[in-house]
Amino acid sequence: MTDVLAVTEHRRGSLRDVSFEVVTAGRELADATGGDLHLAVISGDVDKFAEQVNCDGVDQIHTVAYGEEFNHDVYTQAVEALYDDLSPSIVLMPNSVNGLDYAPAVANGLSLPLVTDVVDFEWDGALTATREMYGSKVETTIEVDAERVAVTIRGGEWPAANGTGDAEVTAFDADIDEGAIGSRVTGFEEVGSGDVDISDAEVLVSVGRGIEEEENLELVEELADALGATLSSSRPIVDAGWLPKNRQVGQSGKVVTPKIYLAVGISGAVQHVAGMKGSETIIAINTDPNAPIFDIADYGIVGDLFDVVPELVDEFQ
Amino acid sequence: MHTVVLTKGVPDFREGQVSFDENGHLERGKTPTVMNPNDQFALEAALQTRVRHGGHVTLMSMGPPGYKDVLREGMASVYADDLYLISDREMAAADTWATSITLSAAIEKLGTPDLVFAGFKTADGETGHTGPQTCWCLDMPIITHVVSLDVDEEAGTLRAKRLVEGDIEEIETVEASFPAFVVADPEFVPSYRSASHRLTLKDLRAETRERAENFEDHLTIWDHADINVDPDYIGLDGSPTIVSSVDPIPKAPAEREATMVSPTSREEMTEVLEAMQPLAAGATGTAEATGDD
Ligand SMILES: Cc1cc2nc3c(=O)[nH]c(=O)nc-3n(C[C@H](O)[C@H](O)[C@@H](O)COP(=O)(O)OP(=O)(O)OC[C@H]3O[C@@H](n4cnc5c(N)ncnc54)[C@H](O)[C@@H]3O)c2cc1C
Ligand SMILES: Cc1cc2nc3c(=O)[nH]c(=O)nc-3n(C[C@H](O)[C@H](O)[C@H](O)COP(=O)(O)OP(=O)(O)OC[C@H]3O[C@@H](n4cnc5c(N)ncnc54)[C@H](O)[C@@H]3O)c2cc1C
Where is the Electron transfer flavoprotein alpha/beta-subunit N-terminal domain (chain B) (predicted)? Predict the structure, then answer.
């Protein structure tokens, strides 16, 4: 009655990291509910995936062999069929692009309340979940007024499960209704894999909204040249289209660990810091002495980047 | 082609606009309401189909009476032929489940449109499920994270490119038949290849800007009785998820002790320069190009 069903995710023939994170989160919940942890592996090479995700803490694995890649209707039907069969209290899905595509349909189809992008939870006969809102400025507590619930968890919040488990793997016949499949993937391309991998760079000059205008990027490009460094940025610069996505450092960008990270006009929001706090030496230039970036910097230059950067260029040219 | 675009009003989170009290609660009275920024991409996608295939764009929102300004903003800033506000005290404190029931009932009352567009996430609730849940109620195929769109009116199909995250960025092409539901990704880019499309776009924008000045002439307000939904299923009564508290995010503890440097002090700057020097020098041998994209 109080089991947990967690759904794994894969792309292009590999399980995604979040598959192992739903195992950890699922085990945590199953321990709290006193139930079993069931894993669903849907589409693709299900036998290979089931073997790989058979970690410590998993009680049962159910495979649904249908199609190669993610499809909205296949996932929705498969999860609903498993739910009907197992009757879990909690359905746990990743808060990924694909997770957010099918989780709402699953929740509606099963008449379950849905809480997405969860970073923490507690179980006390019903679920209480924590999620961030308002651009991660506040943390909200969501109380679920129901005995069963659907949840998507944020990637990177739970550690990946490991170890070799001995869960029983069963093929599950989800009886997928071909006629109810409303969309089809007809093509695939890789984009923005890009010229440069910022996660390999030894020295990064990273630019933020303090740069104000696209034309001003020249200034930091010059500094990067002078230092033999690679240029990276915070998200707003990428959102504005001033630099390509593969230059973005942070939670929804890349994690970097260069020897030197020079943050120019970056405030140091948690999502940015998540991507660069492992850098060896962090130097920040910011006009605001209270900018949070200084809390993780080794050197904080409190000043106007339009003065400081040209000086540094002169120094290193 | 009839398209319906869903939009929500959100507090204006731009720097300097948003006001939180000392407990981290948003001061709604002091924070102006604007159209959810992500919904602009949904509107752009609808405008693209309007330009290429003609027809009609309806902009719809569920919310308090003040949301009519959100609809006006959408009309003025992107495009809309007509506006619908679904507003009723019974709908207050709706969660996404109740919201999706209400929105789908209103859409169905309009007749089944060819395409429905929603934004990816709002800037306040940020759940990202209202669109997909509304789609579920309408029983349409869904394509999420759409970055570009082509419609084949004769065949009654659409082909969309969908951005999926990965170690590298990947794009899937997905096809579906009308009526269909599209969630626009913030990376959505409309495309107007022919000169006649660009001309139509220009004309339509000018026309809608003018229309927005008297937007109330194009606005219809419906309550729960108009769309024939049971008050027990909407609003707080129909909402199984309840927000019980909103707290400021604890600031991450300072992880390093920064040496604070004033750029006007030569002495202090020298220390920073020294920290950078060996690497900068050492790096020149293996310098990577600082890509000119
Ligand atoms: C602090 C807080 C936390 C919340 N947490 C939850 C929760 O965990 N679970 C839950 O079920 N509800 C939750 N809600 C309620 C939820 O915000 C609203 O009920 C819902 O109307 C919109 O959800 P959203 O803002 O997350 O929109 P999203 O789902 O992020 O919006 C996606 C898109 O749907 C469309 N859309 C959304 N709302 C409307 C609308 N009213 N009218 C027209 N189009 C719309 C827009 O195109 C929008 O871009 C929460 C609300 C608050 C204030
Ligand atoms: C789900 C989610 C995921 C996210 N993922 C990421 C991510 O991966 N990466 C990321 O970076 N962000 C991410 N963000 C956004 C993040 O919350 C911040 O909004 C963003 O990092 C801010 O970028 P910024 O520091 O460049 O801009 P701002 O916060 O605007 O900071 C600009 C800074 O420049 C300073 N400044 C201004 N003028 C000057 C000057 N002349 N000289 C020197 N300093 C100056 C200011 O004092 C300020 O500190 C994410 C947000 C969300 C909600």
Answer: 23-212
